[in-house]
Amino acid sequence: MNGTRLQKPTCYFCNKVLENETEEGHLTTCGSVLEPCEFKCGAYCQRKMRDKHLKECTNRPQTQTLPRITKQHKNMQFEHVPIQNVQYQSAFQKNPIQNVPIQNFPVQNISPQNYYPTTSRIDSTPQKTISIDVLKLQTKLGSIEGQLIQTQKNLEALKLRQDKLSAMQTTINPQISSQLENLSYQNHNFVEWRKTMDSDVNNLKYDLVQSDRLKLDLNKKIKMLEDKLSLFNSLMPEINSFKENVMKEQIISNEVIREVKSKLEKLEDFHAHENAAIGGLWDDQRKRLEEIKGDVVGCSKNIEEQKLKYSTVVFDLRAITQIATENAEKVEIQEKELISIRKNLTQLKLDMEILEDTQISRFFTKPGHLIWKMNEFKMKMESAKSTDLVLRSPIFYTHEYGYKIRLIVYLNGIKKWKGRHMIACIHVLKGEYDLMLPWPCLIEGNVTIRDLYDYSDPRHTTKFISAKREHGDEVNDDPQESSTQYIFIPHTTLTKYNHIRDDTLFLEVKIGRYMKHQDETSL
């Protein structure tokens, strides 16, 4: 599990695997990224095809110049026509840039006879030549005025067309910008979604690693406890042998004291008998008396030595008794620690079972519904009687993306119900979706103890239960008989109505309603 490597990201546009660069840095240089046209034609093209598109774009700017009015003297028709006969040719074609049709400008095709009089007219009078020149000038002036008027009309038409194009551009640009914003927003959402997915995968892997570490720590603690137990068992023979030695020494010291007392009593009796028997022979027996006194002094010395030995023996006995009491206290402390260790070990085993059931229930538990299988019920009941064991059900949710809850069970009861009732309550935990849920909350449901013998007409035991909490992971209040937050089931009910089979009990929890407190004002 620890050796699994994270999948490397790939580019959304070119599908390239990113080895040594980030997604944001790659998107700034990727040639397959779609970009809008600079001339705002509404098209999107890849970054590497941008130059080709700009050359072919229909909105590419060009130099807009008015076409020249060309004199077509070379194409003039030299015919004998009157001055008033004016022909019109197309001075301008359609504008290739804006496709604006421009009206025809009048251009005269004047025959050469009007400019160059024939030889028959050279001899005419000067008045006729003057009138012909005046007519020519008037005709030219009229044609120039017409061209000016037509040019003004064409300029007005061009202005109107340009205004229409600017209006169309103002209406099209918001659409293109909105489409660009939508595209960038979708791209941003895709990147964010991918980041969240990567973080969720990393969190799952981290949770699996943490569960493995927790299992290793529990195994280490169990091994340490077993080592302590074995050490304690190995010390017990030494302690027992030490106690036996102390008892033997006490017996020997008592025998020595008895012997000394008996000798003293004998000596006193002998001395009195001698004084009574040899009262008249005191002088004769003085030497013997002195000898006896010497013997008495020696005996007294022996007695003092025996007293010293006795005091040392008593001191040793006191030290031994003190050591024995200290060892007894240590043994009691170790026994208490052993009891607490066994209690913690039992709780750890139950927590391990709950952890495994929780991991399995993620795949099989429905929101708002839990069936809890309680194995080894007899052993757990005995542990609850001796160590106040608390059972916790697998974690489940009231509904999809709802409140995170679990069922807490006191098999042997607590306080005044201890030894008579099984007590259960709902514990609201801190969940992943608490920020989206209304607080405080009211959770209501039913807890059912299933009948495991009669399937045709089962006699289930069902209790109503509720939980009112200000926020998640809140400590429960003290249980009350009138409160619906705790259910009280007598121990006789568990055995009377066939709820236990093969040392197994099934508890079913169904959440029927979840809402805010009635005193809460909703917006």
Q: Beta-strand percentage?
A: 5-15%
CATH class membership of the domain at 365-516? Mainly Beta
Please give the number of β-strands.
Answer: 11
Major beta sheet summary: 5 strands, antiparallel
Mean pLDDT figure: 76
Which homologous superfamily in CATH is the superfamily of the domain at 365-516?
Apoptosis, Tumor Necrosis Factor Receptor Associated Protein 2, Chain A
Just name the CATH architecture of the domain at 365-516. Answer: Sandwich
The share of residues in helices is: 40-55%
> Count of helices?
7
Q: What is the string of helix and strand elements?
A: HEEHHHHEHEEEEEEEHE
Structural class computed from helices and strand pairing: alpha+beta
Low-confidence stretches: 63-124, 516-523
- What is the overall silhouette? elongated
In whole angstroms, the N-to-C terminal distance is 48 Å
Task: Report the C-alpha radius of gyration, rounded.
Answer: 58 Å
CATH topology of the domain at 365-516: Apoptosis, Tumor Necrosis Factor Receptor Associated Protein 2, Chain A
